[in-house]
Amino acid sequence: MTHSPQSSAVSTHILCPALIPDASISASASEIVAGAIQDLDRGIIVGTRTYGKGLVQTITRLSENASLKITTARYYTPSGRSIQEIDYSHPTGNGEFATIPDSLRKSFRTAHNRTVQEGGGILPDSVVNDPDPSRLYQELLRKAMFFKYANRYSAENKTLPEKFTITDTILKDFEEFLKEKKFEYQSEAELKLRDLQDVAEKSQYGKEFLESVGRLKTLAGAEKTVALQRNGKEIRKTLKAEILGRLKGDKKRIEGTLQDDSQLMATVALLKNKKAYDALLSGKKK
After folding, report:
1. What does pTM read for this prediction?
2. 89 has which bridge partners?
3. Beta-sheet pairing, 126-127 with 45-47
4. Mean of the pLDDT values across residues 228-238?
């Protein structure tokens, strides 16, 4: 995606905003590209902090069932900073490794003299976090309910309208599908209340307190009956993606969900706001 402003302090640059949608998938090569764009002030990085994989490993086969993996190189961005998050030279003693603390991260300068730091991946110039997924949504994903429903829907519907959306009817049908599959989960409230009840019982709390917790658990269970509607936005988005992918392929799946992508929408808004864009890229010349 490119955008050329009419006139500005950075009008000689090709402004390529890099969208970093999720730290868990933006790693290694994508981080190097994002770091280069940021260091050279050729665009704005939008999204969340990247994963922080700045090492290159070479794998040597030792035998039929054993290999040796050795770190043979490191990635550095044009300013000279490393993007590596985990410090493998300092094990914690329990099979894990330390990360570089913020106090020890070195600062570097971009082409416009903006300050950027090493380690921990690439921190976007404009941070746009996606909302945390609900417990219901996580369990639907974990148990492949979106995938399974999309399979059934595609078997029953061979075509889709040009502007396909998840209607209330489809959402209701998905709800019935979950009942058929006997889908069950525990909400965050139920999990917290279960922990509270365990603590109360171990601490020998009074009968009245335990009965109050029991009533809250009943209310929390009743709330699950409307959880699908309450979390409708994220559920509709994923259902739409799954069904489009099944019936129209990956390209249409991606195209059909772009309008619901908060990070993409923030990127487009930033491209349209030339003053804000230039302000993010501005800085003293070296």
Report:
1. 0.69
2. none
3. parallel
4. 90
